[in-house]
Specification:
By secondary structure, this protein is α+β, with helices and mostly antiparallel strands. 36% of the residues lie in helices and 17% in strands. It contains 19 helices and 21 strands. The protein has an eight-stranded antiparallel β-sheet with strand order 11-12-13-14-21-18-17-16, with no helix packed on it. It has a five-stranded antiparallel β-sheet with strand order 3-4-5-7-8, with no helix packed on it.
Length: 651
């Protein structure tokens, strides 16, 4: 869902590594790589040390499901995507199967010969994956568009995120439990290698038309996610050193295209949530390459430093982060904060390290949903004192005023530098051709004590509509349900030409971002609508000032000029041009403070629309509803006028 990104002058990996990244050099540097990997075979005594006291929840789930039938995705589940657009019926069963296998592998590794039953559970799960007709997710498979079929085509496997996840899972379990598998189920490892070759390795080497390769200049999170999984598969399941080196060399080229697309400020236009399965996957793949090559492939590069800094720059408070595009406002459980912490420590980024360490400390247990590679790495690192820290009681923020990322035109400004206390203002320019785009040019988010109350709804459950021609019929994607203007009732347009022009960049002394928004609505000039968002620390307020000069309304528009704000919690609109928002109703709000709104001109009419949430991805974040406040301008202010919203924290 995006246009291409702008590449830097030279691919960073190949510029730094030169011939060391070529297949012939890799064939030599990868020789004996297994002895250098952090994740060791289960026979290593370190597994028993790593397991102490950290697997209670994982073990509880595994014990409960062990006696039950394995999840069984059926062709009727696969076909639902093509029939009615539902993708969760199939993907949910596949995910449940893989998570059950991940739990079994972890318990087999740490239990050793004392718990042989877990090895049989692993064997059954691994064989089910080998028998599974498709490793790709139905939503990605091209079988229907090519032939009209709604069943997978075994002769033409589709290499997508799902296939990458399966092959990496099989690779890691083979690495950790290989000798036990040979003794308990001779032939299984040969079958695993055969399926990996036919479904992943051969399609990767034989075809260059995979969209996620980024050869067309459109580079997104699929690229590092799949390439990093293929690196694990090549190292751990490809026995021919020449083929192994060829696959790894091509993966390096692919990762280089992703890194070359990253702007100098390290911004990810897909946002914080997708960082973990984009940039985070790249970091994991690069760490594995460095280990396997004995340090020959050293990824300590400026672009890596910029990527490591991104997550904490988007932090609002507690588990709340600025969400743009298809991302939730609250961080998922089980994110690999330890991985980010290790990178930050290595690179000397004190702020990023402190922030990641605080999250890692309150999420000590591995989560099977994160994937087997991440779980095994987490368990391994628990036995290393270098991964431990003495974090604060809550996640730290940058000790600065906030941040500004010019490549995506995002400002995060804090009332209290270095803290989530008080108000935090986030505002976004950008354009409507970004990856996983929502029509959100000019949108604002305001949090109090880290809890957002002027909000971006975020990501609803994915269906066929999500990435189809009717994407912008989904309410969460529309500018009409973001905190942006609606000049003459216009919806923002789609594509990179519908974007903002920066008129004033923020600084620490003056945290103000002024944007020309006219182009986002297809108006003639950017400055036909100017939005200025600022943090006034001395007054303890956020001010959002809109000024416009529109002329006559277009034929496709209306006579109304509205300015919309999307609100979470409980809203009370007064009769004196004021309103109060409290966090009541937001499930994870850890504050009793709210927001007080006041506006000019007071003659603006306030229209209140409730959005009752029946999608669990939204209701789990926001509760039962979101509320839209539409400030409708009086007749004399329609063609030309100004509207100012002042936001203060309540006590």
């Amino acid at each position: 869902m995006a246009t291409g990104t702008t590449a830097v002058d030279a691919p960073p990996l190949l510029s730094a590594w030169g011939s060391s990244a070529s297949a012939p050099a890799l064939k030599e540097s990868l020789r004996g790589f297994r002895d250098r990997l952090t994740v060791r075979p289960a026979s290593d005594a370190g597994w028993q040390l790593a397991a102490a006291g950290v697997l209670s929840e994982l073990r509880g789930q595994a014990d409960a499901e062990k006696a039950s039938p394995w999840p069984q995705p059926l062709v009727s589940h696969y076909a639902r995507y093509f029939r009615d657009g539902n993708r969760t019926a199939y993907e949910g069963l596949v995910a449940s199967r893989q998570q059950r296998l991940t739990r079994a592998v972890a318990l087999a590794a740490v239990g050793g010969s004392a718990e042989p039953g877990w090895l049989d559970e692993v064997i059954d799960g691994a064989y089910l994956l080998c028998e599974q007709s498709s490793w790709s997710w139905a939503a990605h498979d091209d079988v229907f568009t090519r032939s009209g079929d709604v069943v997978p085509d075994r002769s033409r496997p589709y290499l997508d995120l799902g296939a990458g996840e399966v092959v990496a899972q099989l690779a890691w379990l083979d690495h950790v439990l290989g000798s036990q598998l040979d003794a308990r189920a001779p032939g299984l490892r040969r079958r695993i290698r055969l399926e990996a070759q036919e479904r992943v390795i051969s399609p990767f080497l034989d075809r260059l038309d995979w969209h996620w390769l980024g050869l067309d200049g459109d580079v997104h999170n699929w690229n590092p996610w799949i390439h990093s999984n293929i690196i694990a598969a090549a190292l751990l399941l490809v026995d021919d050193p020449g083929v192994q080196a060829e696959v790894v060399a091509r993966c390096i080229e692919g990762l280089d295209r992703f890194l070359a697309s990253i702007p100098a400020d390290g911004a990810i236009d897909e946002g914080f949530a997708y960082w973990w399965n984009g940039a985070g996957r790249a970091l994991e793949g690069l760490a594995l390459l460095e280990e396997a090559s004995g340090g020959e492939l050293n990824p300590d590069l400026p672009v890596i430093r910029a990527l490591v800094a991104f997550p904490h720059r988007m932090h609002l408070g507690d588990r709340w982060f600025l969400n743009v595009a298809d991302g939730p406002a609250r961080a998922h459980q089980g994110l690999p904060w330890g991985m980010l912490h290790r990178w930050a420590v290595r690179l000397g980024d004190v702020e990023a390290a402190r922030h990641a360490a605080a999250f890692a400390a309150v999420e000590p247990e591995p989560n099977a949903a994160a994937g087997l590679g991440r779980v095994l790495t987490h368990l391994t690192q628990l036995s290393s004192r270098s991964d431990r820290s003495q974090p604060s009681k809550r996640p730290d923020l940058s000790p600065s005023w906030g941040t500004y990322l010019p490549s995506v035109q995002i400002m995060v400004a804090r009332q209290t530098p270095g803290s989530s206390d008080g108000l935090t203002l986030a505002t976004k320019g950008g354009h409507n051709g970004e990856h996983h785009n929502h029509r959100d040019v000019g949108s604002v988010v305001v949090a109090v004590d880290g809890v957002p109350l002027l909000v971006d709804a975020g990501q609803p459950t994915y269906t066929a509509q999500t990435f189809g021609p009717d994407r912008y019929r989904i309410r969460a994607m529309q500018s009409a349900w973001h905190s942006v203007p609606a000049p003459f009732g216009l919806e923002q347009g789609t594509g990179s030409s519908f974007g903002a022009t920066v008129l004033q960049e923020p600084t620490g002394e003056e945290p103000t971002l002024a944007l020309g928004l006219g182009a986002a609505y297809g108006l003639d000039h950017a400055e036909q609508w100017i939005r200025t968002s600022l943090m006034n620390r001395e007054a303890g307020s956020v001010v959002i000032d809109d000024r416009w000069n529109l002329g006559a309304h277009p034929p496709e528009g209306t006579h109304d000029v509205d300015i919309t704000y999307l609100v979470a919690g409980t809203v009370s609109v007064g009769s004196d041009a004021t309103a109060t928002i409290t966090p009541e109703g937001i499930p994870a709000a850890k504050t009793t403070k709210g927001l007080h709104l006041r506006w000019k001109p007071a003659t603006a009419v306030v229209l209140v629309d409730e959005w009752l949430l029946d999608d669990p991805l939204l209701s789990d974040i926001w509760g039962k509803k979101l509320t839209r406040l539409r400030f409708r301008m009086p007749a004399e202010n329609r063609a030309s006028g100004a509207f100012t919203l002042t936001v203060e924290a309540t006590s």
